[in-house]
Write a structure and sequence with these properties.
The chain is of the alpha+beta class and 455 residues long. It contains ten helices and eleven strands. It is 54% helix and 15% strand. It has a five-stranded mixed beta sheet with strand order 6-8-9-11-10. It has a four-stranded antiparallel beta sheet with strand order 2-1-4-3. α1 packs antiparallel against α5. The longest helix is centred in the N-terminal third of the chain and has 58 residues. The two termini are 64 Å apart. It binds adenosine-5'-diphosphate.
Length: 455
């Protein structure tokens, strides 16, 4: 039986029985020995009483003469002790030298008390002098069997303890069942919710109640369920986004090819160039997705080295100037003096800069300016790409680094982006140990920044 109620009840039962047993044992042992002590003490007092009476006999007669015939234990003239029915063994009375002057059965009269008897002997004192000794030999030595009443008392105690044990045992079973119900109800809820969750019912949550530990498990389950639900939503959105992103260039290619086959479009170089551009876009999308998949798996390959950042920034600006000139946008570089070297992969830094500059150019109208800068900080170098473009609305700012997020949905792919550029930039910067962010104001431009650890 591995049910909780059974195990709890069993545990309670064992504890209860051990407790009752221990009480019974200790009570029995202690009461028994105290009782015996009490009886022995009474015994001694009574013997002393007898010794006093014998002393009085000696005083009256000035010797022990005639005691053997004048006194018998069973018929002791003043009576009390025998009537109490306690002394069933021999009674010996010896004079001051140890010669037995009285023996109940007469056999030992005239002998001398041996050491063992002397040790048990009670001195008989008259006028301050020891005039003799009295020895009372019970069949069990000085230890008397317990009286009936004492025996009865012990039996009653035993009976009471057995009843107490039975009652406590029943109580412990009831308690075990009650407690296991309270404990197991939230756990059973949790198990049901977990089963349902495993069957893809993502809304399953459990109420947080019960003992602290059980409530902790419920909280952990709910947190895990939140995470998994979020991941599932992201996964679904991602698949939908990928399908959407692939469908558009494929539809364009299919349409154009069909038109060419139907001789609606001429089979000339410019049409083929358009198709080629679409395949390049598709290839970029696939490459970007692969890079993000590697980032998710923590497998981005970095070639981290000591990098002279101003060179990388200058190169990026120079490579971009032709495209910027074509759009009549100015690219400037500022604050690159006395930059510390950074620990990074220069190719990846260049890739991040390319993404940020391409975005800046895409969102900056003619006559605008893009400024590339860098500032050394405590343990990092902060690189900034500032533009004087359209900026980003506050509600979009927290999302621009998400995959396939586009602030302006209508522009979608027409501007040439895959919607993954910033997500990839973020993955690379974080892989190099830095952080990335943006400050932007709609209508006044944006400043994208990222940090790299300085050496
Ligand atoms: P995309 O391929 O659409 O550019 P990104 O991940 O690079 O994808 O950027 C995500 C979105 O962030 C863009 O669609 C755009 O709305 C916004 N964005 C990025 N850079 C800028 C910028 N410099 N100015 C304004 N908006 C920007």
């Amino acid at each position: 039986m591995n049910r909780l109620w059974f195990q709890l009840s069993l545990a309670f039962l064992v504890v209860t029985l051990v407790g009752v047993g221990l009480v019974a044992f200790l009570a029995g042992a202690r009461t028994d020995s105290n009782f015996r002590k009490f009886l022995a003490q009474q015994e001694t007092e009574q013997l002393q009483d007898l010794a006093d009476q014998l002393a009085a006999y000696y005083q009256d007669n000035s010797s022990w003469d005639g005691i053997q015939v004048g006194w018998s234990y069973g018929g002791f003239p003043r009576g009390g002790i025998h009537q109490r029915g306690r002394f069933k063994g021999d009674v010996l009375i010896a004079d001051a030298n140890g010669y037995v002057v009285y023996a109940q059965d007469g056999r030992m009269t005239g002998t001398v008390l041996d050491a063992a008897l002397r040790a048990q002997a009670i001195p008989i004192v008259a006028n301050g002098q020891t005039v003799g000794y009295a020895v009372f030999r019970t069949p069990q030595g000085m230890t008397m069997p317990l009286q009936n009443s004492a025996q009865q008392f012990f039996e009653q105690l035993r009976g009471t303890l057995v009843i107490a044990g039975l009652l406590a045992g029943m109580l412990s079973i009831a308690l075990g069942i009650g407690l296991s119900r309270t404990l197991s109800a939230p756990l059973a809820n949790l198990a049901t919710a977990a089963h349902r969750f495993a069957a893809r019912d993502w809304q399953q949550r459990v109420p947080v109640r019960g003992a602290h530990e059980v409530a902790e498990v419920a909280t952990a389950f709910n947190r895990m369920a939140d995470d998994l639900e979020r991941q599932e939503t992201t996964r679904r959105n991602m698949i939908a986004d990928i399908a959407h992103e692939l469908r558009t260039p494929l539809a364009v290619m299919q349409g154009n090819l069909h038109a060419m086959l139907d001789q609606v479009y001429p089979l000339d170089r410019s049409e083929i160039a358009t198709l080629y551009d679409e395949t390049r876009l598709l290839a970029r999308l696939v490459d970007d997705l692969r890079e993000l998949a590697l980032a998710d798996a923590g497998q981005l390959q970095l070639n981290a080295q000591s990098v002279k950042l101003d060179d990388v920034l200058q190169n990026a600006a120079a490579n971009f100037s032709i495209a910027a000139d074509a759009q009549n946008v100015r690219v400037t570089v500022s604050g690159l003096q006395s930059l510390p070297r950074v620990r990074a992969d220069s190719d990846r830094v260049a890739q991040v800069l390319r993404n940020l500059l391409a975005n800046a150019l895409r969102h900056t109208p003619e006559g605008g300016t893009i400024t590339l800068g860098a500032q050394p900080q405590a343990e990092f170098v902060r690189v900034t790409v500032r533009d004087t473009g359209e900026g980003i609305a506050p509600q979009d700012v927290p999302h621009v680094f998400e995959r396939f997020y586009r602030a302006d949905k209508s522009r979608t792919r027409t501007t040439g982006g895959t919607g993954l550029g910033l997500a990839i930039a973020k993955a690379w910067v974080e892989a190099m140990g830095g952080r990335i962010g943006v400050e932007s104001e709609a209508g006044r431009g944006s400043e994208f920044w990222f940090t790299l650890p300085s050496e």
